[in-house]
Amino acid sequence: MAAKMLVDCGYLAMARVWGLTRRGYRSGSKDNRTQSLGIPAKAKESNLTTLTLNVNGANRTVSVSDPSMPLLWVLRDLIGLTGTKYGCGIEVCGACTVLIDGQPEHSCVFDTSSAVGKKVVTIEGLSANTSHPAQKAWIDHQVPQCGYCQSGMIMSCAGAMAAGHHGSEILGELQNLCVCGTYQRIKEAVSTL
Amino acid sequence: MATTTPEVRPATDTRQNVGRRGFLASAAGGLTLAFFIPEVSRLSDVEAAGLPGQVNAWLQVGTDGSITLTIGSSEMGQGSMSGLAQVLAEELVVDYAKVKVVQGGPSLVNPVPVGAAINTVGSSVIRTNFWKMRDAAASARETLVQAAMNAKNDQTRSDFTVSNGVVTHVPSGTLLPYAQLASAAALLQPAANAPLIPDSQFKLIGKTVPRVDIPSKVNGSAKYGLDVRVDGMVYAVIKHCPTFGGTLASTPSVPSGMLAVVPTKVFAGTGRGTEVTDNVNAVAVVGPNTWDTWQAAKRLNVAWNLPSNAANLNNAKFLSDAQTLLTTATPFVAGGANPAGTLYTVEGAAGNVTSANTSAAKIVEATYTLPYVSHACMEVLNCTVNYVPGVSCEVWAPTQSAKAVLSLVIAMTGLPASAVTVHTMYLGGGLGRKAEVDFVSQAVQVAMQVKKPVKLMWPREEDFTRDQYRPMGVIHGKAGLDSSGNILGWSYRNVSPSILGQRGVPLGAAGDSQGIEGAVNLPYNFGARVTEWVSHPSPIPVGFWRSVGASLNTFGVECMIDELAFAAGQDPYQFRRAKLTDPRWIAVLDAAAVLGNWTSAPPSGRARGIAIGAAFNSIVAEVVEISNLTTTGLRVNRVSCAIDCYIPVNPGSIQAQLQGGIVHGLNAALYGQQTFVSGVAQAKNFNKSRMIRLGEMPQIGITIIPGPAASDRSVNIGGAGELGVPTFAPALANAYFKLTGKRVRSLPLFPGATMGGL
C-alpha cells in the first residue's frame, strides 16, 4: 500500500538521518497547528532559526537554517501547504502568489523572516468550502485546465477584490502567467466579480 | 460528480498467476471483480483488493448508489479524465453528478485493460478509447441487468428498463438499484455484444458537463507531482552538466548540511541524442528541504568533461547543415545504413512534379525556418520515489506514461511488477515532455542510493535547459501554377532532427512519421506531388511537443499555399476552397471564414490570415486578425477557429482545448525558441522565453462542426488537445503578409523577446 502521506518537515527526515531526536512536530490538523516545531537540541546548535508565522489565521512555528528561505518553500516543505506553487522562482510567473496583510506577494522571493508579524493567506485559507466569489466564478466558468497557475491567479484576483476592485479593474492586476492559455475564461469569470 | 482530487489507488496486482477459475473461487468469498471486457484475457491487472460493490476492474458501486470509475488517462488539463467518465456514465446509464473518478494505475497487459493507465499522448484519450469505453460500459450495464433478470427469475430482457443506475422490472414494478445488483453481477460472465445507447438518446455524449477535477484546482487541494509528501522524505535537486553531451569528471564531496550527492546516469531507453546510455550527465544533491538543497546545488562546483563536438552544437551550424541538406541529402536505400542526412520520399515522386511543372506559367519557391522550442510546463519535472531494497518501489510522478514508468522501475530495480506501485499525479502541464521518463529514472537512482523516500525536483532553469525540444526544421516548398491558378506540381521537403530516430526506432522508407505529419495526404488538388523528409544530424535531444510534426509542417504547407494564392492573384480563402477535394475540409474552412468575417473588410489597421490543416484525425481552420505591429511585437485581436473532430464528446472541453492550443501556438509563433551556444541552452527561465499575459489575450471564437446523427464506428474520431496549435502560426504569418506585404518565413517573429517581472 501507499506509504502514509503526511505533512512533514524536511528536517525531520534529516534528524532521523543524523540520529537527532524528534519532538513531535506535525502540522496539518487543527489540534496541533500551533504546536512548536520543537527544535532538536543538536539542531539548535547547528544554527537553526525559529520563526513564528501567522498563516491562514493560525500561528505556525518553523525552524530554518537560512532565514532568507523564501516563504514559498516554508509554506510547501515545512508547513505542508502545497497549494502555493513554484513556477519560475524569479517573480515572473506569479504561480506562488499569496496574500500578506491582504496584499498579493510573490512568495518565491519573499523572505520568510519578513513575513513574521504579518498575516499570510494561502489558497487553502482563502475560504471555507471553496466559497470565495473568485473560486465560485472559476468553477462556474470552468477556468482551470492543468490548474497549476490557478492558485496564484485566484490569490491575485482575491487581492484585487479585497482592495475594492471589480471586473476590468481586476483584470488589469492579473499579470500571472498561464501556459495553458485559460485567459479567455478568466476574463469571463472576472467579469462577474 | 466528485469534487475531490481523484484518489490514488494501488496500481498493480499481486496475483499475476491466478487463473480465472481460481480467482472466481476466491472471489466467491470476498467478492471482488469477476468480469472483464472481452479483449482482456488475463487477470493480471485487477485491483489489489476486492471492495464491496466492485463490479469489475474499473467499476465500483457503493452501497449508497455512488458510482466510482477508475480512469486510465493522465489529467494534465485537457479534461480527458472527465471525458472518459462521461462516456462510461452514458452507457452505464448512471447520474454523472454522482460519478466519482479515481486514477487507474499502469498494467503490462496488452491491450491496455479498461481502467488501467493509458499513454496520454497524441490527443488520443477520447478518440482512441471512445468505442472501447462504450462497449465496456454497455457490457457492464447489461451484466447488471442480467443480475436483475436472475433475481426476478425473468429472462425476458424487454421486461427490464434502466434509468439512473436503477434497473426496473416493469411487470412487477420492482426497482433494483445497481448497488443491490453489483455483488451478483460481479460473479457473472460479462455480457457479450451489449447494445449501445442510440445517439438520439444521448444524455451526456455531446454535452458540456463540468470537469471533475476543477473544484480541487481552485482551492489548493489538487495534488500535483511536486506536491507529494511522504513520511520521512528527503529532497533532491538535479544539476545537469550545462553542456549537452557532457559527463561528470569527478563526484563532488557532500556540501555541509546535505545528505548526499548522487551522480545520475542516463538509463537505457531514456537518453536522446547527445545523452547516451550510461553517461553520467547530472548529479542530484540530497538534503532536508527544497530550498536549502537547491541553494547547495547551485553553489556546488562540479567538474564536467565536455564533449569534443561541443563547439558544433550551435544554431548557426544547425541551420547551415539543414540548408545544405535541402539540396544534397542522400536518398534512402533499403537495407542500407541510412545515417542522418538521408532523404526519405514519403509520398509521390520528384520526377512527376518536375514533369508537371514544365508547362507552369509561374514557379513559386520558398524556404521556411523553425526553431527548437521548449515545453515549459508550469510544473517543473519532478518525481517522488520510496524504494525499499529488495522489497518494493513506490513512485509518484506527473507522468503521461505510467506504463513506461512501471517498465522502467522494473528494469532499474529488478523488482517484479507486483512490488512496484506507480501513482499518476495531476500534471501541471504535460505538453509531451512528461511522456518521457528521464526524470523518473533519476529519482529512482537517487532513491536506490539514499534508501529513503525522496522527491527529486528540476529547478526551472534545468527544466528549460535540459528539455527534449520541439525539433527545429528547415522546409523548402516549390510549386508550379498554370495561368488559371491551378497547382501543377507540388514539391515539399522538410529537414529536421528525428524524434523517433533519437529513440532508436529504425526508420523505414517513409522516414519519421512524427516528422512529416501534417504534410502528407493533403486533400489539395495538386497535379503531381512529392513529399520528402530529411533526417537532420543535430544531436540536441528532441521530443514530442504539443502537435509534434504538424507544428512545423502545417506552417510550411499553409504559408506555401498562401504564397501560391498571392501568385495566382486569388483570395487566400477562395484559392484554398477551390483546391480542396475533401468536403469536410471545405466545411471547416467555410466555418472559420464565416466566424472570422472573412468576406467583410477588417477594421482599419487590422489584417486577417487564414490556414487549415489536420492532425490526430481532426480538421481545424483558423482565421487570425492582427494589428499594431511594432519592432517588438504585434497585437493578435481575434482568432476564429473551426474544428471537425467527428464526435464532439464534450464541446466545452473542446472549446477550452482549442483556446489553450491557440495560445500555445501564439506564444511559439511570436516568441518561442530555444537556442544553443556550444551545446548550452540559452533561455533558462520564463524571462527569456516570453509568453502572453492576460491583457494580450485575443478574443477567440470556436465553431465545432456537429457530430453525425448516427455515428459510424468505422469513421475515425478526432482529437482536440493539440489541435489549436498547428494552424495558428501560418494563419498569423499570412495575416502579417496582408498587413505588411512581407512574408514571415522564419519563426519566431520576435526572437529576442523577453518578459519582465511582475
Task: List unreliable stretches of 5+ residues of chain A.
Answer: 1-45
- How large is the radius of gyration of chain B? 27 Å
Rg of chain A, Cα atoms, Å: 18 Å
N/C terminus separation of chain A:
44 Å
What is CATH's topology name of the largest domain in chain B?
Answer: Aldehyde Oxidoreductase, domain 4
Largest sheet of chain B: 7 strands, mixed
The number of distinct β-strands of chain A equals 5
Query: How do the helices and strands follow one another from N- to C-terminus of chain A?
Result: HHEEHEEHEHHHH
Task: Report the CATH superfamily of the largest domain in chain A.
Answer: Beta-grasp domain
Tell me what portion of residues of chain B adopts beta-strand conformation.
Answer: 15-25%
What fold name stands as the CATH topology of the largest domain in chain A? Ubiquitin-like (UB roll)
CATH H-level superfamily of the largest domain in chain B? Aldehyde oxidase/xanthine dehydrogenase, molybdopterin binding domain
Q: Which pair of chains forms the biggest interface, and how many residues does each contribute?
A: A-B, 78 and 84 residues
Structural class, judged by helices and strands of chain B?
alpha+beta
Structure characterization notes:
The complex is a heterodimer of chains A (193) and B (758). Chain A has helices at 10-17, 41-45, 71-79, 112-115, 133-140, 150-162, 167-171, 183-190; strands at residues 49-55, 58-64, 97-100, 103-106, 119-121. With 193 residues, chain A is an alpha+beta fold. Chain B has three domains: 20-217, 2-Layer Sandwich (Aldehyde Oxidoreductase, domain 4); 225-308 and 377-465, 2-Layer Sandwich (Aldehyde Oxidoreductase, domain 4); 317-373 and 469-740, 2-Layer Sandwich (Aldehyde Oxidoreductase, domain 4), CATH 3.30.365. Chain B is built from 16 helices and 27 strands. In chain B, the strands form seven sheets. In chain B, strands 9-10-7-18-15-16-17 form a seven-stranded mixed sheet, sandwiched between helices. Chain B is globular, with a radius of gyration of 27 Å. The two termini of chain B are 37 Å apart. Chain B is α+β, with helices and mostly antiparallel strands. At the A-B interface, helix 1, helix 3, helix 5, helix 6 and helix 8 of A face helix 5 and helix 15 of B.
